[in-house]
Amino acid sequence: MNGGLSAMPQTLVKNVDFFVAALSQTFVSALQLDPDGMYSQVGIGIVEKFAEDYVRLKRFDGSISHYDREITKFQHNKA
User: Does residue 7 carry a pLDDT above 90?
Assistant: First the structure.
């Protein structure tokens, strides 16, 4: 390892980012701007499907949520 500070969250932007997260079954956080202009977590789950305009996450309880890629930031913590 690089011996630096603890791993910073990685933002998923490109399709390949979502593909790798889906293959590795990594939990991803969905963040959206709140009224104060700060990002707040609106969901977390495993990437089950993604397209140019949305990402579908499967949560811990098995339920599914869809998030618009235009207004949602997706992150996961690097190991």
Answer: no
